[in-house]
Amino acid sequence: MVMPICLGILFGLSIIFDGYMENIFTIVTTIAVYTYFIYYEKNYKSLFIGLLLSFFIINISIMVFIKDDIKVESIEHGDTQDETLVMLVYDGESKKYNLRERANEIYFDQGYKSYLTSMYNLHKYKGYYDSLGTSEFKDTAHKVSSGLRSKLGPKYKVVDAYMYTKPYFENMVQEVVELGYKNIIICPMFITQGKDFELFNKRLDSMELNKYGVNVKLTDVFYKSDNLAKSYTNEILGNIKNEDVDSGVLLIGLADENNLEQDIIFREKIKNYIEKEKNTKIQIKLPLLENNKDDIIKSGEQLLEFGVDVLHVVIPTCTIDNMYNKNLVESILKELDTSEVRFHYIEPKDKVKILIDEMYTQIQLIEK
Fold first, then answer.
1. N or C: which end of the chain has fewer CB within 10 A?
2. Which keywords has UniProt assigned to this entry (predicted)?
3. Half-sphere exposure of 251 (CA within 13 A, CB side)
């Protein structure tokens, strides 16, 4: 029984680690499998039970020993700063695949269920990075904070913080409070008050910042933003240059991640702006990501049945696209790919500028 468990553990580690660690575990697993089937009795029942036990051992070990813990020590007061601290909080992801941080995200997303699913989800995350390369999430977030910092001027200090990657926002809050910042504006950079926003609120409340004499204000999320909706609309219409071409638009929502009502409001806003152009050759669908993309694929196929020449895929569900969204786009286009229809993925080119302007406006209003 010991050998099958070791085989399972080695194989599991080879599919969740990357780089040289993945290579080491792959080589050792290959040698162990060869040794087992050559020198050990082929008891397939014991092999199955051993592999099953190894599955539980790896999942539990990931959550107990590997997951990146967020530790907030007792906060000490520093000399009071005159500046107002603006903290932009994103969900976030690391530039390269980071096992510890992604395990932490899985734990926050799935709770105790992660003790059964972490190995599978980590392997899936690793696959995103293997197929798409590095993440540009933090680079884009830095552009937003840099632009906002320039626009707000010297009375404000602007920093980035993240829910699922370093610097974690709890650690960043602790740091700025200890530096003496008493006036803090936190900007949750989410489209809707969905799962990430609710978790953000819960983690913020658990810090009990009021007992440290810190004045915390929150800006609003972005589903009400007319400018952001118009930005998507302009990008879509800008790609539809030929009026003789029948075009289809998939405005995809993420029901599991977002507040569904607010998600629909934002996508309907974009749809209404497009329809105001009175271009009857634009067919629009608002599918949700559910049932393993079935709703999206079905909506796309329905648009293709209308005889569209160009299909535009739009996912207006987050402020910055992450690896999950990019992988989703790739898989959708692969499912709908034909030699007769052209595809475009729409992401507004001026989105960073729009986010900066939106946050500047909200901060000015909240400070009055």
1. C
2. Membrane, Transmembrane, Transmembrane helix
3. 23
Distances (CA, A) of 167 to 81, 104, 196: 21, 13, 16
Q: Which residues of the chain fall below pLDDT 50?
A: none
Provide CB contacts within 8 A for 49, sequence distance 6+.
Answer: 1, 4
pLDDT of residue 289: 77
Q: And the tokens for 262?
A: 């607010």
- At 313-356, the pLDDT tens digits run 999 999 999 999 898 888 888 877 766 677 888 899 999 999 99
Tell me the C-alpha to C-alpha distance, in Å, between residue 186 and each of 159, 162, 201, 320. Answer: 10, 12, 11, 17
Record the tokens describing residue 125, joined without a space.
């995350």
Residue 55: partners with Cβ closer than 8 Å, 6 or more residues away: 8, 12, 119
Give the position of tokens 């008891």.
43
Burial-class residue 217 by CB neighbours within 10 Å (0-12, 13-18, 19+).
middle
Residue 278 φ/ψ region, left for φ over 0, alpha for ψ in the -120 to 50 degree band, beta for the rest: left
Q: Which tokens is 109 given?
A: 């997303």
